[in-house]
Amino acid sequence: MILTVATLIAAGIEPTQARRFVDPLKAACALFDISTPARVAGFVAQCRVESTDFTRLEEGLFYTTPERIRAVFSSRVPSLQVASTLTRRPRELANRVYAGRNGNGDEASGDGWAYRGRGLIQLTGRANYADAAVELNRPYVENPGLIAEPPDACLTAAWYWHSKNLSLLADSARWDSITRAVNGRAMLHAAQRRQYAEEGVTVFA
């Protein structure tokens, strides 16, 4: 058995989180054939970074400085003056920066906040929630908060991984290509993701 509490702890997950996630992880990985040491290592590596070691299943969007908001959302927040109106206002920020993207309605629709990033691999946007709902037969559009619970956090992450054919990339150790598929052009923490994956191949062997 590749995924156990012991192997998750050896991979760097705290014992409490390892015990909490091992069963839903095993179920999700089995469903989508994330079954070899390389596939499990790549998947767990991405989940670790995206969820801060399995401790954050929901995007907070609570920023305390306009400078940080501009740094993260420069294409959607055009100035420090605008950013200053969104500090410490996560709902308003989400509705602003995610409006009209990934199937979301306009800023007034509230879709940005309702369908903000959730799960082990941050699923974001009404369209992605709807696609996952259809594929997994789960009510994510009506009840988006489900994705912030461990079973659905694991399930949607494995579904996303499978939908992007990331197991094939893991088979050839193309860790940076996986990061690009998960995180986009930003490639945030690419070196850390690569390190976790490379170490995980040995841990899960």
Question: Please, could you describe this protein's structure?
Answer:
Helices cover 56% and strands 0% of the residues. Helix 2 (15-31) crosses helix 9 (150-163). The chain has 205 residues and is mainly α. The radius of gyration is 17 Å and the shape is globular. The protein has 2 domains: 5-56 and 147-203, no CATH class; 66-114, no CATH class.
Instruction: Give, in order, the helices and strands.
Output: HHHHHHHHHHHH
Q: Uncertain spans, ≥5 residues at pLDDT below 50?
A: none
Strand content: under 5%
Structural class: mainly alpha
What would you call the quaternary organization?
A: single chain
Whole-number tally of structural domains: 2
The number of helical segments is: 12
- Mean of residue pLDDT? 96
In whole angstroms, how far apart are the ends?
10 Å
Number of strands: 0
Largest sheet: none
- Portion of residues within helices: 55-70%
How large, in whole angstroms, is the Cα Rg?
17 Å
* Shape descriptor: globular
